[in-house]
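User: Can you model how flavin-adenine dinucleotide sits in this protein?
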Amino acid sequence: MIPAAFAYARPTTVEEALQAIADGGEDVKVMAGGQSLIPVMRLRMAAPETVVDLVSVSEMRGVRDDGDALVVGAMTTHHDVLVDPLIAEHAPLLVQATETVADRQVRARGTFGGALAHADPAGDLAAVALALDAEMVIAGSGGRRTVPAADFFVDYLTTCLEEGELLVEVRIPKLRGEWGVRYEKFNRVAQAWSIVAVAAAVRRENGHIAEARIGLTNMGSTPLRAQATEAALAGADASAAAIAAAAERAAEGTSPTSDLNAQADYREHLARVLTRRAVSAAAGL
Amino acid sequence: MSQITVRVDGVTYTDEVEPRTLLVHYLREQLGKVGTVVGCDTSNCGACTVHLDGAAVKSCTVLAVQADGSEVTTIEGLAAEDGTLHPVQKAFHEMHGLQCGFCTPGMIMASVDLLKENPHPSESEIREGIEGNLCRCTGYQNIVRAVRQAAGEMSAPETTGAQA
Ligand SMILES: Cc1cc2nc3c(=O)[nH]c(=O)nc-3n(C[C@H](O)[C@H](O)[C@H](O)COP(=O)(O)OP(=O)(O)OC[C@H]3O[C@@H](n4cnc5c(N)ncnc54)[C@H](O)[C@@H]3O)c2cc1C
Ligand code: FES
Ligand code: FES
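Assistant: Here's the modeled complex, given as structure tokens:
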């Protein structure tokens, strides 16, 4: 119940944070909201030598409009995402998914960037970042680099972040045109993680579906796009029948695990059903 | 050790803490504020809920060092100085919103936070608002009733007071 002893640093800028990580010894962990890290440290599944707490790095917090994209600071809390007018206007899919994350106490501390860096396949925000073609801005000792969401998530709890690097902010392209969105999450009890969830954004044009983007939560060791369904929907009728047929292909190319919550084949079933529901809702049906 | 200065239930404390000390342990063991309890090992139960700079948080999932410079309100700081219960405390009492009482401090702190953001929650908004708090006794029914009653009382116009 009590974490192992560690040294604690609380930098106030990205520069200072990178320095603190470099100076922190062999095993350094950065802490964002601590809502995944502190539980893991309490269970002694992590026992870092140094914790670099990002809570006071104000340049990493908040949302700004950058023309074609929104830029969301990695330290923006789930609560702040939910009340942000720019996100409500330009990335409502993120709002819908964030509403389903944990509970109000955890949302008060947990952060958007922390959830992405944690890269739990059951986490709700990674599939949204993937569906919205978000880009991750990463700072390291050699400067900054930008990585598309599709390359950021590498494996179970693993991202492309190298040791000593920080996720600083996330660029979310604004959706242009007539888009509808829906996050459909299946879980069984309050504050629970997704057994499977589907993030859908659909652009309609003259009664047709011009483009669909579908992110899948917990259908493999990383978030995935339902590529076969996306391809089947491009140019399809915005009809219940066309959407149902396309959604049948939602589990193609996925590799869900079997665990206490669900067997793999049941997860595949859920992916199909939730994709049908999410796309139908996003298409306004 | 790190030095922290925290205002807890209206009193300012300056103390030495280990960085690994959880806020809930600081409150209970260093300040003797045992009204805030620990009910789990997994950040699920919400029994440890306090307000940190006005927002409900799980104090088992915050380090004491992170509260440096902050204002903390625990269940012990909710009643008025003369002992008059907060409307949410009173409603839990009147509506039988507790049995063993272990979840109650956290339930009340989460409910106060919810009502601050949403003074007129529907029943389902109440259930979602306290989803981070588990109760193993009541079945939640009377807890939800208590929050509804408190919401009504807190938004009712003042019936007493100097201005008539
Ligand atoms: C009871 C409970 C229920 C939950 N339910 C859900 C749920 O339903 N859906 C969901 O998606 N999530 C859920 N979560 C997790 C929640 O979303 C966390 O907020 C999130 O996973 C981690 O965010 P954090 O800011 O707390 O990160 P932390 O716990 O501080 O960090 C997590 C990891 O990411 C690393 N990290 C953090 N920020 C950065 C950065 N900027 N750069 C590099 N590395 C970084 C840390 O080193 C650490 O390894 C739940 C958590 C709890 C406690
Ligand atoms: S003690 Fe259970 S959530 Fe904090
Ligand atoms: S009253 Fe016993 S746990 Fe809620």
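A couple of observations from the model: The first helix of chain B runs from residue 23 to 30. Chain B has a mean pLDDT of 95.
User: Helpful, thanks.
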